[in-house]
Design brief:
Elements lengths: L1 E6 L2 E5 L13 E5 L2 E5 L4 H4 L3 E5 L6 E5 L23 H18 L4 E9 L2 E8 L7 H16 L5 E4 L17
Parallel strand pairs: 8-9
Antiparallel strand pairs: 1-2, 3-4, 5-6, 7-8
Helix pairs in contact: 2-3
Length: 179
């Protein structure tokens, strides 16, 4: 089990089966009866104090994680200065709709998210987070997926600027190419 990203002010989690022999020296390992839980080293502090439980709720029971920890607030890009931008205009609202209904459901499978930071004239400023922050394929996702969907749905937008600090990505879905 690990923190796979963040959405708004809560963490997103990945749970999967893995051989215990794949654990590394920095991982946390807990043996619970017939279940062994492994938390990768980079997720330990983010999960410290959490409770993994089974909900018996008849309307949607299942695994529940109660985590007292929250991701740090997103930092504003150095390109975006001044007061927070107004995203209430027609173009901004249509952009938000494209992100919410088309883009984010598609990239959520990799723990990613795209957020609209600002709209200035014919330019939209986006910030990628979760599995997209630091991902070696983020530029491809942006140019071949996100930009195409936005330009089809919101033709007023000509330029799309990625204001993500990709160097600070802590859990990218893909790693950058090593040279």
């Amino acid at each position: 089990m690990e923190v796979g990203g963040a959405h708004d002010d809560v963490y997103a989690y990945d749970m999967y089966f893995q051989a215990t022999s794949d654990a590394t020296a920095g991982d946390w390992i807990e043996h619970l009866d017939d279940l062994t839980l492994i938390v990768p080293g980079q997720s330990i502090d983010r999960l410290r104090g959490s409770v993994l439980d089974l909900s018996q709720d008849p309307d949607g029971g299942g695994m529940v994680i109660r985590n007292p920890n929250r991701p740090p607030p997103a930092h504003r890009s150095p390109r975006m200065t001044g007061p927070p931008p107004d995203l209430s205009g027609d173009v901004a609202q249509r952009l938000l709709q494209v992100l919410d209904e088309q883009i984010n459901p598609a990239i959520a499978a990799h723990g990613g998210r795209a957020d609209l930071v600002a709209v200035e004239g014919d330019t939209a400023y986006l910030r990628l987070s979760g599995g997209c922050a630091g991902c070696g394929l983020a530029a491809v996702t942006l140019s071949q997926g996100i930009e195409v969907a936005i330009r089809e749905s919101v033709p007023e937008i000509v330029n799309i600027v990625d204001v993500t600090d990709h160097a600070s990505g802590t859990n990218p879905y893909y790693e950058a190419t090593k040279k």
